[in-house]
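# nightly structure sweep
# worker-07 picked up a monomer target from the shared queue
# config: single-sequence mode, recycle default, output format = structure tokens
# input follows
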Amino acid sequence: MPSKPSPLNSCRSGGCTLTGALSVTTSVVDSATIIHGPAGCAHHNFSLLHATGLDNDRITSLNLFSSGMLEPEVIFGGEDALERAIRRAVRGDYSVVYVLSACIADTIGDDVPAVCRKDWGVPVIPVPTAGFLGGSFQDGVNNALVSIAGTLTGTAERKNGICANIIGEKNLEFEVEENFNEVSRLLSLLGITINVRFIHCAGTGELASLGGATLNVLRDEGMGSLGDLLNRKYGTRAVPAFPAGLSGTLRFLQSAGEIAGTDAVESIAGETGAQASLLEDFSDIAGSSIRFDPVFPGLTDDCSVSEVIERLGLEISLEGVRVPAPLSPPVGTAGVRRLLHRWRRALHA
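# output follows
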């Protein structure tokens, strides 16, 4: 029986564990990442990350190295090849080096942590990324964040004012900046500023202040174990996920306000009014008959999308106008507005 599910049942975050971890480590701006495995693993992922960055209007330099394992390393072990790659990497001006293992390196039993523990002059941090036994893209993201958080030496001394860490953003999604801006806007309604984006285009100096925040905001509920780790290490409680849809946004404000010790009543009232105005702005499509792309059948069952459909009186019908299905739940009130703009364009085409 195959250890991986059928591609027909895969979601957007169901890809390679290695790629998931790379989406995190390559976002630490003063770091280098080594892929311990064949050169093809590095080439494939470099191409993917570079192309995704261009699609998101981000031209980034990926400090990516490969141990370049060949047949001799596969047969006799690749630890010497990894040491050579680390020596190349530490000659650069990097504050930290991350080592991610491709599946073949774990299969043959290379002791990557032992190699990383040697004195290299800068921290060399291993991240478990061999997903051949069933690990997913999201597992790679979580493993990278946990590995990095576990090595931070900053204190838990709170900063002045109320501030939040944004934890585990999906760096490869098209709307990563729009979603961050919406979460920042909502937090600002409560008087909460942003401390650290853990990890999106941040340096090691910024990451060291992770423990100074009043609260953490996790990207997804699947990051609960990471939220627990940060709570144990720094005593920082977490909002379990980004706000999804209209009601989810109001619940987000309530939850963040409770953790921060801030009264959210006024903010919730203001956002409720903003959402009513939003729905009024799209009254021209109310009652329309729509249908979704069948490639993404499960995503349209999300309660945040269903709520928008219900509040605008939209009808789901096989004869309806095809509108784009969201790849993930819309983040906040602004995310709902972007979704409705796309539906309006389709309906008025």
